[in-house]
Amino acid sequence: MATQTSINSPALAESTVEEFAQALRGTLIRRSDASYESARRVYNAMIDRHPLLIARCANVADVITSVNFARTNKLLVAIRSGGHNGPGLGVCDDGLVIDLSPMKGIRIDPVQRTARVETGCTLGDVDHATHAFGLATPSGIISTTGVGGITLGGGIGNLTRQLGLSIDNVLEADVVLADGRFVTANAETNPDLFWALRGGGGNFGVVTSFLYRLHPVSIVYGGPMLWNLEQAEEVLRWYRDFLPQAPDELNGFFAFLTVPPAAPFPEDLQGKIMCGVVWCYTGSVDTSESTFAPIRARFGGPTLDWVGPIPEPALQSMFDGVYPAGDQWYWKADFFNELPDAAIKQHIEFASKMPTWQSTMHLYPVDGVASRVPKNATAWTNRDAKWSEVIVGVGKDPADNDRMIKWAREYWESVHPYSTGGAYINMIMDEGTDRIKATYGDNYDRLAAIKANYDPSNLFRVNQNIAPS
Ligand SMILES: Cc1cc2nc3c(=O)[nH]c(=O)nc-3n(C[C@H](O)[C@H](O)[C@H](O)COP(=O)(O)OP(=O)(O)OC[C@H]3O[C@@H](n4cnc5c(N)ncnc54)[C@H](O)[C@@H]3O)c2cc1C
Predict the structure, then answer these.
(1) DSSP structural state of residue 297
(2) What is the pLDDT at residue 220?
(3) Is the pLDDT score of 11 beyond 90?
(4) Distance from residue 173's CA to the centre of ligand 1 (Å)
(5) How far, in Å, are 119, 240, 283, 338, 378 from residue 246 at the CA level?
(6) Fewer CB atoms inside 10 Å of the end CB: C or N, the chain?
(7) Probe ligand 1: pick from 145, 209, 459, max atoms within 8 Å of CB?
(8) CA-to-CA distance for 191 and 446, rounded, in angstroms?
(9) Which residues of 139-151 are buried (b: 16+ CB within 10 A; e: fewer)?
(10) Per-residue pLDDT at 3 exceeds 70
(11) Is the pLDDT reported for residue 448 higher than 60?
(12) With the C-alpha atoms ordered 415, 417, 423, 428, is the resulting torsion angle positive or negative?
């Protein structure tokens, strides 16, 4: 096991717990509290863990108090920002959850084009705040995701080709370390920690805020364009050849999906498995139509075309309704440099057998600006991959879980031989240390050494864990 999510609960005196509660400006939730049941839940309903205590931190002082309390009392610690993590690493059994969700401060500096963001914010909170200034920073495609987990793992989304990963736009992070010290990490101060935080996950401390670089992105030209599954082979071959040659201003992730069985989707398409691309073009308005005209002319025209001018936050939250909190999720992932015809055939075979309507496969481009960052400039080393693939079995009924998991595993096994090795750590379940090592490649040893410096006792181990060297 790469990850530890449970430990024997130490016996804590009631007075010790009460003293901790009194020291917090936020709320300490115990097993006997009415709010415990909802507070322990994370986004993925497959995860069912029972922490001893949940500290809803109001500020950095609360985070320092919580880290010191966990270390002193030998409690396992889980750090939660948005709670979206697939294997549920924002919660543990019997330990302390440091829940950052009340920490929602955001300060935009429109002159310097930066945003200081506390880590209880979701991606939607950030887009909302920056959009008022006509600015944005790259993040993921569902607005309820927390900035903490997505940023520390990398951050792939609609602006990756144009502006890089989320981590490529982090200028600074404030961090509470395992020994309770508060430090700032940037290119000049604690540069080794700054390097490790950009891709190394929650291994190095509790990040209380990020300083992000912002860019003038306001109205983009984007949305989903779908074709029939019978056309998938030619569409995916074309996408494979076309996108890597396209200008950085054009991002588009490929998807196999089922059209949701509800309005506003056309009734004749509802429930139909299709293939498509979700586009995001940030070139000038004058060139949008001419950029998309040859795409629209292909394959007899798309069956559904919802691509057009759209405010960036609207594109960023377009699929929130399809994926509410509380569904069952099982994740598999890989990086790809090539999509040979034999792999495309496997994709189509498994896409046509999707176990539930919410299950899906996405290929997120990680080329463009993201690929021009040197492999060893940040902990995220997969700069030579062209796509980050995710296969997710998603459903509402736990009775479907076995079927969903079997489909996702078999699908993954069929295309894995064509992958580059390793996988995006934000899109895997608990897959063991070898998989984590394969993901970080040549950067792993440096990460383990930095971990030994900042967290020698591995206090922060409820994560895709990098053991201290
Ligand atoms: C519906 C959905 C859509 C997604 N879309 C995308 C996408 O478009 N692009 C993408 O890149 N990823 C995406 N993801 C994956 C996402 O990046 C991971 O699930 C990520 O872990 C979520 O972050 P979180 O803060 O919400 O998670 P949490 O469960 O709160 O945290 C996960 C882990 O991150 C670490 N962590 C979180 N906050 C902190 C902190 N402040 N300090 C230190 N460590 C911390 C901890 O190790 C924690 O266990 C998506 C996930 C879901 C469920």
Answers:
(1) T
(2) 98
(3) no
(4) 16
(5) 34, 11, 12, 16, 25
(6) N
(7) 145
(8) 13
(9) bbbbbbbbbbbbb
(10) no
(11) yes
(12) positive
Dihedral sign for Cα atoms in the order 88, 252, 155, 142: negative
Token pair in block for residue 77: 């610690």
Classify 88 as helix, strand or coil.
coil
Question: What pLDDT, on a 0 to 100 scale, did the predictor assign at position 275?
Answer: 98
Confidence class for position 23, pLDDT limits 50, 70, 90: very high
- SS3 (DSSP) at 428: coil
Residue 177: pLDDT band (50, 70, 90) is very high
What Rg do the C-alpha atoms of the chain give, in angstroms? Answer: 22
Residue 278 near residue 284 (C-beta atoms within 8 A): no
Please tell me the distance from the alpha carbon of residue 412 to that of residue 406, in angstroms, as a whole number.
10
Query: 120 CB less than 6 Å from ligand 1?
Result: no
d(CA 339, CA 232): 13
Instruction: Give the C-alpha separation, 10 to 229, whole Å.
Output: 55
Give the pair of three-digit tokens for residue 61: 């002082």
Please give the pLDDT value at position 1. 43
- Do the beta carbons of residue 353 and residue 430 sit within 8 Å? no
- Residue whose CA is closest, atom 23 of ligand 1? 149
The pTM for the full model equals 0.97
DSSP β-bridge partners for residue 117: 106, 210
Residues 335-356: pLDDT tens digits?
A: 999 999 999 999 999 999 999 9
Q: How far apart are CA 82 and CA 140, in angstroms?
A: 12
Asked whether the beta carbons of 412 and 165 are under 8 A apart, the reply is: no
Show the tokens assigned to 197: 């935080």
Ligand 1 center to 329 CA (angstroms): 14
Q: What is the DSSP string of 393-418?
A: EEES-GGGHHHHHHHHHHHHHHHGGG
Q: Report, as an integer, the average pLDDT of 203-228.
A: 98
Please tell me the distance between residue 463's alpha carbon and the centre of ligand 1 in angstroms. Answer: 10
Measured CA to CA, the distance from residue 313 to residue 124 in angstroms comes to 7
pLDDT for 370 equals 98
